[in-house]
Amino acid sequence: MEKFQKVLDLYQKHHSALGYGLVTLLTAGGERLFSTVVFSCPCSATWNLPYGLVFLLVPALALFLLGYVLSARTWRLLTGCCAPGARRGCGAGLRCTLVCTQLSAAAALAPLTWVAVALLGGAFYECAVSGSAPFARFLCQGRDPSCVAQLPLVPCNQAKESEVQNLLKELRAQSQVLGWILIAIVIIVLLIFTSLSRCLSPVSFLQLKFWKIYLEQEQKILKTQATEHATILAEENVKSFFKGSCPKEHYTPGIKDWQQISSLYTFNPKEQYYSILHKYVNKSEKSQSIRSAEGDALFPVLGFVDSSGINITAEI
Questions:
Q1: Which terminus of the chain is more solvent-facing, meaning fewer CB atoms within 10 Å of its CB: N or C?
Q2: For the chain, give me the number of helices (H) and strands (E)?
């Protein structure tokens, strides 16, 4: 039991990194499964290019969109934004643009992993490039005149000329070099972005640690309290229905209250609230909007604040 608790504590401390690692492993495993079991290059001058590109790019696009769907910030941003009377000012539009940029960067992890692993394997690239007329003319310079016609057969090892069949090694080398270049670029960009976001952080390292602990506890308590309140309200309504009596009055936050605490979080150095709920319960005028105020700003390092919610991802 103690060992299990240690494992659980380790997961809670590093759940974000473990989550990204799991996504990367599943994506890499899925790519290898596709390339060995499903993928079969048609070895046709007409179909090689579209077939190879479909396997290389379409799953990457699907994973990119899935990254948006599984993000709590996506639904926090979109839910209710097209409802009648829901207006956004210029400042809100700029904040939404910044949030969308951050969402895109996070959602790009899985598709970039797919493309990188696919390029390292080489099967998709070999099939696609062998069916491209411009690449065929480039690769066949100074070789047998029938090279262009036989190149689409290379992925299936059906080229008649051995010199043409040897181009498969060159195609595989190109694919793997591009794969390693993509991995290096992703790592460098990720390192630069992480370093800049930490350098521009409005709070210190230890306060960020405390902030994340607070959000975890707030989410747990909010879920518990919401479950209890919803249970009591449901029981009272059901009893009143069967007994034909008036239900007891139970206070429940109104639609404006829910809208307030569902808005995007902005940081203000004058009033350091740890969540939008924290900001809402501490404001003096409940009727005023807490969505924007002078001095409010978005910081990429604080993006985890909007990711908290009551099992938002699991319920979509």
A1: N
A2: 15, 0
Give CA separation, 180 vs 34, 173, 183, 204, in Å: 20, 11, 5, 35
**Residues 96 and 77 sit within 8 Å (Cβ to Cβ):** yes
Q: Which of 33-42, 163-172, 244-253 shows the lowest mean pLDDT across its residues?
A: 33-42
Q: Are 276 and 311 in contact (CB under 8 A)?
A: no
Query: 3-state class of 271 per DSSP?
Result: strand
The stretches of 70-89 forming alpha helices (DSSP H) are 72-78
Which residues does 133 contact at the CB level (< 8 Å), separation at least 6?
148
User: Could you write out the DSSP letters of every residue in 144-201?
Assistant: -TTHHHHGGGGGGT--SSHHHHTHHHHHHHHHHHHHHHHHHHHHHHHHHHHHHHHHT-
Question: Which pTM does this prediction carry?
Answer: 0.79
Report residue 129 as tokens: 């490039």
Judged by DSSP in three states, 257 sits in helix
Q: Rounded to whole angstroms, how far apart are CA atoms 190 and 173?
A: 26
Q: What is the pLDDT of residues 265-282, one digit of tens each?
A: 888 888 889 998 998 888
Q: How far is 260 from 269, CA to CA, in rounded Å?
A: 20
- If you count them, how many residues does the chain have? 316
Distance CA 135, CA 159 (A): 17
